[in-house]
Design brief:
58% helix, mainly alpha, elongated, 3 strands, 3-stranded antiparallel beta sheet
């Protein structure tokens, strides 16, 4: 019995499908022939318009300034926690609190800033960039205000550790990658200026704390 013959002519089809709202041209695999067993893989070719390029300026500098202010407040207040801790202990504002206990307040708040990353990423994917940042601003400011009238150690854990830590985590994790989306050629400069707010905040706030 002779082996079945394969039509040497290419077999396939051409079609256009919609994937995630964009039309893509799809080519089916093509069978060349019995002596040539090369099969072309399916390919997709985007037919929609590409996203616009980064503006490299304009409103992007407002975004950089906003991110600078976020880092200024978040890390500026955290970098001078030792000043707050010393004043709280020497003035006896928090009844019965030791320096060792007060150190945990600032440490827990700083730890929450970094552990909020996965939650902030999920919230930005679901609600966008602005709502999480707005929520973080309100929560962090509320924590600082509540701490100003605290008289017990657990008051500080709620205000400066939990409320401030979670709010600052939303600000930091939510804004750290935003400036780079507005720049291409000047991305390194924009990211550096935004990140410098952390050091400038500590240097500026320490003398007046």
């Amino acid at each position: 019995m002779s082996a079945p013959q394969i039509d040497p002519e290419p077999l396939g089809f051409h079609d256009t499908i919609t994937i995630d709202g964009a039309e893509r041209e799809v080519k089916a695999p093509t069978l060349q022939g019995r002596d040539d067993h090369q099969v072309a893989l399916p390919t997709t070719k985007p037919t929609g318009s590409s996203p616009p390029p980064a503006p490299d300026g304009g409103y992007g500098w407002i975004v950089v300034l906003s991110s600078f202010c976020f880092n200024f407040i978040v890390y500026g207040t955290n970098n001078i926690w030792g000043v707050y801790q010393s004043n709280l202990f020497q003035q006896g504002t928090i009844r019965g609190a030791t320096m060792f206990q007060l150190s945990f307040v600032g440490g827990l708040g700083l730890g929450l800033i970094f552990t909020m990353g996965p939650i902030v990423t999920w919230s930005q994917a679901k609600f966008g960039t602005r709502p999480p940042l707005f929520f973080g601003t309100l929560l962090m400011c509320a924590g600082i205000e509540v701490a100003s009238v605290s008289t017990e150690l657990w008051h500080l854990f709620i205000s400066l550790s939990i409320m401030y830590g979670i709010g600052a985590g939303f600000l930091f994790s939510g804004s750290v990658a935003v400036p780079s989306q507005w720049f291409n050629r000047k991305r390194a400069l924009a990211t550096g200026l935004a990140s410098s707010g952390s050091g400038v905040g500590g240097a500026f706030l320490a003398p007046i704390a």
